[in-house]
Amino acid sequence: MLQAERLSAGYRGRAVLHDFSLVLAPREVVALVGPNGSGKTTALRALARTLNPFSGQLSLENRPYADYSPVEFARLVAYVPQLSLPEMGFRIYELVLMGRYPHQKGFWGATAADHQAVREAMEQLEIWHLRDRLISQLSGGERQRVQLARALAQSARYLLLDEPTAHLDLRHQVRLLTRLRQWCDERASAMLLVLHDLNLASEYADRLILLSEGRIVAQGTPAEVLTPDHIEQVYRVPALVRPHPLTGRPLVFALEPALRHDPHAPALFVIAGGGSAAPLYYPLLEQGWQLRVGILNLLDTDEETARALNLEVVSEEPFSPISERAYQRAIALLRRSHAVVLTDVPFGQGNLCNLQLALFAQQSGIPVYALNTRPIEERDFTEGEATQLWQQLLEAGAQLFDQQSALLNALQALFEQLAHE
User: Is residue 40 part of a domain?
Assistant: First the structure.
Protein backbone atom coordinates (compact mmCIF):
# COMPACT_ATOMS: atom_id res chain seq x y z
CA MET A 1 0.00 0.00 0.00
CA LEU A 2 0.91 3.64 -0.43
CA GLN A 3 -0.03 5.51 2.71
CA ALA A 4 -0.05 9.12 3.86
CA GLU A 5 -0.85 10.18 7.41
CA ARG A 6 -1.76 13.76 8.32
CA LEU A 7 0.33 15.45 5.66
CA SER A 8 0.85 19.17 5.66
CA ALA A 9 2.55 20.64 2.60
CA GLY A 10 2.90 23.87 0.69
CA TYR A 11 5.29 26.42 -0.75
CA ARG A 12 7.67 29.03 0.70
CA GLY A 13 6.71 28.13 4.22
CA ARG A 14 2.95 28.48 3.68
CA ALA A 15 0.87 25.32 3.98
CA VAL A 16 -1.80 24.80 1.33
CA LEU A 17 -2.51 21.18 2.27
CA HIS A 18 -3.54 20.30 5.81
CA ASP A 19 -4.01 17.03 7.66
CA PHE A 20 -4.20 14.95 4.48
CA SER A 21 -4.42 11.16 4.91
CA LEU A 22 -4.71 8.45 2.29
CA VAL A 23 -4.42 4.69 1.83
CA LEU A 24 -4.01 3.51 -1.77
CA ALA A 25 -4.27 -0.24 -2.29
CA PRO A 26 -3.62 -2.48 -5.35
CA ARG A 27 -6.34 -2.58 -8.04
CA GLU A 28 -7.87 0.57 -6.55
CA VAL A 29 -8.56 3.77 -8.46
CA VAL A 30 -8.93 6.88 -6.32
CA ALA A 31 -9.71 10.35 -7.65
CA LEU A 32 -8.81 13.63 -5.99
CA VAL A 33 -11.50 16.19 -6.80
CA GLY A 34 -12.16 19.75 -5.75
CA PRO A 35 -12.06 23.32 -7.08
CA ASN A 36 -8.96 25.10 -8.31
CA GLY A 37 -6.52 25.80 -5.51
CA SER A 38 -7.95 23.14 -3.19
CA GLY A 39 -4.63 21.30 -2.80
CA LYS A 40 -5.03 18.40 -5.25
CA THR A 41 -1.77 18.92 -7.13
CA THR A 42 0.10 19.67 -3.91
CA ALA A 43 -1.10 16.37 -2.43
CA LEU A 44 -0.02 14.48 -5.54
CA ARG A 45 3.41 16.14 -5.57
CA ALA A 46 3.99 15.25 -1.92
CA LEU A 47 3.03 11.64 -2.61
CA ALA A 48 5.34 11.59 -5.66
CA ARG A 49 8.31 12.89 -3.62
CA THR A 50 8.70 16.00 -5.76
CA LEU A 51 7.61 18.19 -2.84
CA ASN A 52 8.79 17.71 0.72
CA PRO A 53 5.89 17.92 3.18
CA PHE A 54 6.13 20.13 6.24
CA SER A 55 4.83 17.38 8.49
CA GLY A 56 3.17 13.97 8.40
CA GLN A 57 4.22 10.44 7.49
CA LEU A 58 4.59 8.78 4.09
CA SER A 59 5.11 5.06 3.63
CA LEU A 60 5.28 2.69 0.68
CA GLU A 61 4.92 -1.07 0.99
CA ASN A 62 5.16 -0.64 4.78
CA ARG A 63 8.48 1.21 4.56
CA PRO A 64 9.05 4.94 5.09
CA TYR A 65 9.66 6.97 1.96
CA ALA A 66 13.09 7.91 3.29
CA ASP A 67 14.21 4.27 3.05
CA TYR A 68 13.95 4.30 -0.75
CA SER A 69 16.57 5.57 -3.14
CA PRO A 70 15.22 7.57 -6.11
CA VAL A 71 15.61 4.57 -8.44
CA GLU A 72 13.95 2.16 -6.00
CA PHE A 73 11.08 4.56 -5.54
CA ALA A 74 10.67 5.01 -9.31
CA ARG A 75 10.33 1.25 -9.75
CA LEU A 76 7.24 1.37 -7.57
CA VAL A 77 5.74 4.83 -8.21
CA ALA A 78 5.18 6.59 -11.54
CA TYR A 79 4.16 10.24 -11.57
CA VAL A 80 2.74 12.27 -14.46
CA PRO A 81 2.55 16.01 -13.74
CA GLN A 82 0.46 18.55 -15.61
CA LEU A 83 3.44 19.96 -17.53
CA SER A 84 3.84 18.72 -21.09
CA LEU A 85 7.01 17.15 -22.43
CA PRO A 86 9.54 19.67 -23.78
CA GLU A 87 11.00 19.48 -27.27
CA MET A 88 14.34 17.66 -26.87
CA GLY A 89 14.88 16.22 -30.35
CA PHE A 90 13.91 12.70 -29.34
CA ARG A 91 11.48 10.48 -31.18
CA ILE A 92 8.29 9.55 -29.34
CA TYR A 93 9.51 5.98 -28.93
CA GLU A 94 12.68 7.22 -27.24
CA LEU A 95 10.71 9.48 -24.89
CA VAL A 96 8.52 6.58 -23.77
CA LEU A 97 11.60 4.37 -23.39
CA MET A 98 12.90 6.84 -20.80
CA GLY A 99 10.25 5.44 -18.49
CA ARG A 100 12.29 2.23 -18.33
CA TYR A 101 15.27 3.99 -16.74
CA PRO A 102 14.60 2.64 -13.19
CA HIS A 103 14.78 -0.93 -14.52
CA GLN A 104 17.95 -0.57 -16.60
CA LYS A 105 21.30 -1.70 -15.23
CA GLY A 106 24.49 0.20 -15.77
CA PHE A 107 25.50 0.82 -19.37
CA TRP A 108 23.93 -2.30 -20.84
CA GLY A 109 21.16 -0.28 -22.45
CA ALA A 110 17.60 -1.29 -23.14
CA THR A 111 16.69 -4.96 -23.01
CA ALA A 112 14.04 -6.91 -24.88
CA ALA A 113 11.84 -6.58 -21.80
CA ASP A 114 12.22 -2.79 -21.93
CA HIS A 115 11.20 -2.65 -25.59
CA GLN A 116 8.27 -4.96 -24.92
CA ALA A 117 7.08 -2.74 -22.04
CA VAL A 118 7.31 0.35 -24.25
CA ARG A 119 5.34 -1.22 -27.07
CA GLU A 120 2.63 -2.48 -24.71
CA ALA A 121 2.26 0.95 -23.11
CA MET A 122 2.08 2.76 -26.45
CA GLU A 123 -0.39 0.28 -27.91
CA GLN A 124 -2.52 0.50 -24.79
CA LEU A 125 -2.81 4.28 -25.29
CA GLU A 126 -3.13 4.00 -29.07
CA ILE A 127 0.00 5.95 -29.99
CA TRP A 128 2.21 3.21 -31.45
CA HIS A 129 1.74 4.75 -34.89
CA LEU A 130 3.36 7.96 -33.58
CA ARG A 131 6.58 6.26 -32.47
CA ASP A 132 8.86 7.90 -35.07
CA ARG A 133 7.53 11.45 -34.72
CA LEU A 134 8.90 14.34 -32.68
CA ILE A 135 6.92 15.81 -29.77
CA SER A 136 6.58 19.11 -31.67
CA GLN A 137 4.63 17.28 -34.36
CA LEU A 138 1.88 16.15 -31.95
CA SER A 139 -1.32 17.74 -30.72
CA GLY A 140 -1.85 18.53 -27.07
CA GLY A 141 -3.93 15.41 -26.57
CA GLU A 142 -1.31 13.21 -28.25
CA ARG A 143 1.43 14.72 -26.08
CA GLN A 144 -0.65 13.90 -23.02
CA ARG A 145 -0.90 10.27 -24.06
CA VAL A 146 2.87 10.13 -24.64
CA GLN A 147 3.47 11.24 -21.05
CA LEU A 148 1.06 8.62 -19.79
CA ALA A 149 2.64 5.91 -21.94
CA ARG A 150 6.04 6.71 -20.44
CA ALA A 151 4.52 6.24 -16.98
CA LEU A 152 2.90 2.92 -17.97
CA ALA A 153 6.19 1.73 -19.44
CA GLN A 154 7.72 2.34 -16.02
CA SER A 155 5.79 -0.76 -14.83
CA ALA A 156 5.19 0.82 -11.43
CA ARG A 157 2.67 -0.52 -8.94
CA TYR A 158 1.33 2.94 -8.18
CA LEU A 159 0.35 5.55 -10.75
CA LEU A 160 0.00 9.18 -9.69
CA LEU A 161 -1.60 11.15 -12.51
CA ASP A 162 -2.33 14.87 -12.47
CA GLU A 163 -5.17 15.72 -14.86
CA PRO A 164 -4.57 12.80 -17.27
CA THR A 165 -7.56 13.80 -19.42
CA ALA A 166 -6.33 17.36 -20.03
CA HIS A 167 -6.28 18.35 -23.73
CA LEU A 168 -8.36 15.29 -24.69
CA ASP A 169 -11.75 15.39 -26.37
CA LEU A 170 -14.70 13.49 -24.94
CA ARG A 171 -14.07 10.30 -26.92
CA HIS A 172 -10.42 10.11 -25.94
CA GLN A 173 -11.18 10.94 -22.30
CA VAL A 174 -13.48 7.93 -22.06
CA ARG A 175 -11.13 5.63 -23.98
CA LEU A 176 -8.13 6.73 -21.93
CA LEU A 177 -9.75 6.21 -18.54
CA THR A 178 -11.19 2.88 -19.64
CA ARG A 179 -7.75 1.69 -20.70
CA LEU A 180 -6.03 3.01 -17.57
CA ARG A 181 -8.65 1.25 -15.45
CA GLN A 182 -8.08 -1.97 -17.41
CA TRP A 183 -4.30 -1.60 -17.03
CA CYS A 184 -4.60 -1.35 -13.23
CA ASP A 185 -6.97 -4.30 -12.99
CA GLU A 186 -4.80 -6.57 -15.12
CA ARG A 187 -1.55 -5.70 -13.32
CA ALA A 188 -2.91 -5.30 -9.78
CA SER A 189 -1.72 -1.68 -9.85
CA ALA A 190 -3.20 1.25 -7.98
CA MET A 191 -3.98 4.64 -9.46
CA LEU A 192 -4.47 8.03 -7.85
CA LEU A 193 -5.53 10.73 -10.26
CA VAL A 194 -6.55 14.35 -10.10
CA LEU A 195 -9.72 15.08 -12.07
CA HIS A 196 -11.78 18.24 -12.49
CA ASP A 197 -14.67 16.47 -14.22
CA LEU A 198 -16.83 15.10 -11.41
CA ASN A 199 -18.78 12.84 -13.74
CA LEU A 200 -15.62 11.18 -15.07
CA ALA A 201 -14.38 10.74 -11.50
CA SER A 202 -17.71 9.22 -10.51
CA GLU A 203 -17.70 6.75 -13.39
CA TYR A 204 -14.11 5.47 -13.19
CA ALA A 205 -12.97 5.77 -9.57
CA ASP A 206 -13.65 3.39 -6.71
CA ARG A 207 -13.26 6.16 -4.17
CA LEU A 208 -13.22 9.95 -4.27
CA ILE A 209 -11.45 12.39 -1.99
CA LEU A 210 -13.08 15.83 -2.07
CA LEU A 211 -10.76 18.68 -1.13
CA SER A 212 -11.53 22.28 -0.31
CA GLU A 213 -9.05 24.90 0.85
CA GLY A 214 -6.44 22.22 1.46
CA ARG A 215 -8.59 19.98 3.64
CA ILE A 216 -10.54 16.79 3.05
CA VAL A 217 -14.26 17.53 3.10
CA ALA A 218 -15.45 14.03 2.25
CA GLN A 219 -14.10 10.72 1.05
CA GLY A 220 -15.76 7.46 0.13
CA THR A 221 -17.66 6.01 -2.80
CA PRO A 222 -18.84 8.40 -5.50
CA ALA A 223 -22.38 8.19 -4.09
CA GLU A 224 -21.12 9.09 -0.61
CA VAL A 225 -19.05 12.06 -1.80
CA LEU A 226 -21.03 13.56 -4.68
CA THR A 227 -24.04 14.80 -2.76
CA PRO A 228 -25.78 18.12 -3.41
CA ASP A 229 -24.74 19.36 0.04
CA HIS A 230 -21.06 18.53 -0.48
CA ILE A 231 -21.01 20.08 -3.94
CA GLU A 232 -22.67 23.29 -2.84
CA GLN A 233 -20.38 23.52 0.19
CA VAL A 234 -17.19 23.11 -1.86
CA TYR A 235 -18.03 24.59 -5.26
CA ARG A 236 -20.55 27.17 -4.01
CA VAL A 237 -23.12 26.26 -6.64
CA PRO A 238 -26.33 24.29 -6.26
CA ALA A 239 -26.31 20.92 -7.99
CA LEU A 240 -28.69 18.25 -9.11
CA VAL A 241 -27.36 14.70 -8.64
CA ARG A 242 -29.04 11.88 -10.54
CA PRO A 243 -28.06 8.21 -11.04
CA HIS A 244 -26.51 7.25 -14.35
CA PRO A 245 -29.19 5.36 -16.33
CA LEU A 246 -26.78 2.48 -17.08
CA THR A 247 -24.31 2.28 -14.20
CA GLY A 248 -26.28 3.85 -11.36
CA ARG A 249 -23.29 6.02 -10.42
CA PRO A 250 -24.05 9.65 -9.59
CA LEU A 251 -24.18 12.23 -12.36
CA VAL A 252 -23.72 15.85 -11.30
CA PHE A 253 -25.51 18.74 -12.99
CA ALA A 254 -24.33 22.11 -11.73
CA LEU A 255 -27.06 24.73 -11.52
CA GLU A 256 -26.84 28.47 -11.76
CA PRO A 257 -27.17 29.91 -8.24
CA ALA A 258 -30.74 30.96 -7.54
CA LEU A 259 -31.46 34.65 -7.70
CA ARG A 260 -32.13 36.40 -4.43
CA HIS A 261 -35.68 37.68 -4.27
CA ASP A 262 -37.42 40.36 -2.30
CA PRO A 263 -39.13 38.65 0.66
CA HIS A 264 -42.06 40.99 0.08
CA ALA A 265 -42.36 40.12 -3.62
CA PRO A 266 -45.47 38.37 -4.96
CA ALA A 267 -45.52 34.60 -4.40
CA LEU A 268 -46.19 32.02 -7.08
CA PHE A 269 -47.13 28.40 -6.33
CA VAL A 270 -45.96 25.94 -8.99
CA ILE A 271 -47.73 22.58 -9.36
CA ALA A 272 -45.57 20.22 -11.38
CA GLY A 273 -43.74 16.90 -11.49
CA GLY A 274 -41.46 14.74 -13.61
CA GLY A 275 -39.19 17.60 -14.68
CA SER A 276 -42.00 19.70 -16.19
CA ALA A 277 -41.27 22.72 -13.96
CA ALA A 278 -37.46 22.76 -13.92
CA PRO A 279 -37.23 24.85 -17.16
CA LEU A 280 -39.52 27.44 -15.56
CA TYR A 281 -37.64 28.01 -12.31
CA TYR A 282 -34.95 30.39 -13.59
CA PRO A 283 -37.22 32.52 -15.80
CA LEU A 284 -39.71 32.91 -12.95
CA LEU A 285 -36.98 33.77 -10.46
CA GLU A 286 -35.61 36.34 -12.90
CA GLN A 287 -39.06 37.91 -13.09
CA GLY A 288 -38.86 38.38 -9.31
CA TRP A 289 -41.36 35.82 -8.03
CA GLN A 290 -41.07 34.07 -4.71
CA LEU A 291 -41.51 30.44 -5.74
CA ARG A 292 -43.27 27.69 -3.82
CA VAL A 293 -43.40 24.23 -5.40
CA GLY A 294 -45.46 21.12 -4.76
CA ILE A 295 -46.71 18.56 -4.21
CA LEU A 296 -43.73 16.53 -5.40
CA ASN A 297 -42.36 13.12 -4.52
CA LEU A 298 -38.82 12.96 -3.22
CA LEU A 299 -36.36 11.97 -5.98
CA ASP A 300 -38.55 13.72 -8.58
CA THR A 301 -36.42 15.96 -10.82
CA ASP A 302 -38.58 19.01 -10.10
CA GLU A 303 -38.35 18.36 -6.37
CA GLU A 304 -34.56 17.90 -6.33
CA THR A 305 -33.99 20.95 -8.52
CA ALA A 306 -36.26 23.08 -6.33
CA ARG A 307 -34.41 22.02 -3.18
CA ALA A 308 -31.06 22.67 -4.85
CA LEU A 309 -32.27 26.21 -5.56
CA ASN A 310 -33.47 26.59 -1.95
CA LEU A 311 -37.09 26.99 -2.97
CA GLU A 312 -39.91 26.20 -0.59
CA VAL A 313 -41.14 22.72 -1.49
CA VAL A 314 -44.03 20.55 -0.34
CA SER A 315 -42.67 17.00 -0.63
CA GLU A 316 -44.07 13.50 -0.34
CA GLU A 317 -42.35 10.16 0.13
CA PRO A 318 -40.92 8.57 -3.05
CA PHE A 319 -43.39 6.61 -5.17
CA SER A 320 -46.18 7.33 -2.69
CA PRO A 321 -49.58 8.93 -3.29
CA ILE A 322 -50.08 12.44 -1.96
CA SER A 323 -51.01 12.30 1.71
CA GLU A 324 -53.55 14.47 3.49
CA ARG A 325 -50.75 16.02 5.50
CA ALA A 326 -48.88 17.15 2.37
CA TYR A 327 -52.13 18.36 0.81
CA GLN A 328 -52.98 20.53 3.81
CA ARG A 329 -49.48 22.00 3.87
CA ALA A 330 -49.87 22.89 0.21
CA ILE A 331 -53.25 24.48 0.92
CA ALA A 332 -51.61 26.65 3.58
CA LEU A 333 -48.98 27.84 1.08
CA LEU A 334 -51.60 28.41 -1.58
CA ARG A 335 -53.56 30.75 0.67
CA ARG A 336 -50.44 32.94 0.90
CA SER A 337 -49.72 32.89 -2.85
CA HIS A 338 -50.79 35.39 -5.47
CA ALA A 339 -51.10 32.95 -8.37
CA VAL A 340 -50.66 29.29 -9.35
CA VAL A 341 -48.85 27.74 -12.30
CA LEU A 342 -49.98 24.25 -13.33
CA THR A 343 -47.56 22.53 -15.72
CA ASP A 344 -48.63 19.93 -18.26
CA VAL A 345 -47.72 17.01 -16.00
CA PRO A 346 -49.40 13.59 -16.48
CA PHE A 347 -51.97 12.68 -13.83
CA GLY A 348 -52.45 9.35 -12.11
CA GLN A 349 -54.19 8.39 -8.91
CA GLY A 350 -51.03 9.19 -6.96
CA ASN A 351 -50.90 12.88 -7.93
CA LEU A 352 -54.55 13.61 -8.75
CA CYS A 353 -54.66 15.75 -5.60
CA ASN A 354 -52.46 18.28 -7.40
CA LEU A 355 -55.24 18.90 -9.90
CA GLN A 356 -57.69 19.25 -7.03
CA LEU A 357 -55.25 21.72 -5.48
CA ALA A 358 -55.32 23.86 -8.63
CA LEU A 359 -59.12 23.75 -8.70
CA PHE A 360 -59.24 24.81 -5.03
CA ALA A 361 -56.98 27.78 -5.83
CA GLN A 362 -59.07 28.96 -8.79
CA GLN A 363 -62.34 28.60 -6.87
CA SER A 364 -60.77 30.57 -3.99
CA GLY A 365 -59.98 33.51 -6.23
CA ILE A 366 -56.29 32.69 -6.78
CA PRO A 367 -55.69 32.74 -10.55
CA VAL A 368 -54.39 29.56 -12.16
CA TYR A 369 -52.16 29.69 -15.25
CA ALA A 370 -52.08 26.23 -16.85
CA LEU A 371 -49.54 25.07 -19.41
CA ASN A 372 -51.27 22.88 -21.99
CA THR A 373 -48.79 21.78 -24.63
CA ARG A 374 -50.45 18.36 -24.65
CA PRO A 375 -54.20 17.69 -24.37
CA ILE A 376 -55.37 16.54 -20.97
CA GLU A 377 -56.70 13.33 -22.53
CA GLU A 378 -53.12 12.29 -23.35
CA ARG A 379 -52.06 12.97 -19.78
CA ASP A 380 -55.01 11.37 -18.00
CA PHE A 381 -54.24 7.97 -16.45
CA THR A 382 -57.16 8.05 -14.01
CA GLU A 383 -59.94 6.70 -16.26
CA GLY A 384 -61.31 10.18 -16.84
CA GLU A 385 -61.18 11.67 -13.33
CA ALA A 386 -58.36 14.05 -14.27
CA THR A 387 -60.21 15.17 -17.39
CA GLN A 388 -63.32 15.97 -15.36
CA LEU A 389 -61.31 18.03 -12.86
CA TRP A 390 -59.57 19.77 -15.76
CA GLN A 391 -62.90 20.81 -17.26
CA GLN A 392 -64.04 22.13 -13.87
CA LEU A 393 -60.79 24.09 -13.63
CA LEU A 394 -61.44 25.71 -17.01
CA GLU A 395 -65.04 26.48 -16.14
CA ALA A 396 -63.82 28.18 -12.96
CA GLY A 397 -61.69 30.54 -15.10
CA ALA A 398 -58.20 29.02 -15.33
CA GLN A 399 -56.13 30.43 -18.21
CA LEU A 400 -54.56 28.02 -20.73
CA PHE A 401 -51.27 28.50 -22.58
CA ASP A 402 -50.06 26.32 -25.45
CA GLN A 403 -46.47 27.62 -25.25
CA GLN A 404 -44.12 28.25 -22.35
CA SER A 405 -43.14 31.66 -23.74
CA ALA A 406 -46.75 32.82 -23.72
CA LEU A 407 -47.16 31.60 -20.15
CA LEU A 408 -44.05 33.49 -19.03
CA ASN A 409 -45.20 36.67 -20.74
CA ALA A 410 -48.54 36.51 -18.93
CA LEU A 411 -46.83 35.90 -15.59
CA GLN A 412 -44.45 38.82 -16.21
CA ALA A 413 -47.43 41.12 -16.77
CA LEU A 414 -49.13 39.79 -13.63
CA PHE A 415 -45.98 40.29 -11.55
CA GLU A 416 -45.60 43.90 -12.71
CA GLN A 417 -49.25 44.55 -11.92
CA LEU A 418 -48.94 43.06 -8.42
CA ALA A 419 -45.66 44.83 -7.75
CA HIS A 420 -47.26 48.23 -8.39
CA GLU A 421 -50.32 47.65 -6.24
Answer: yes
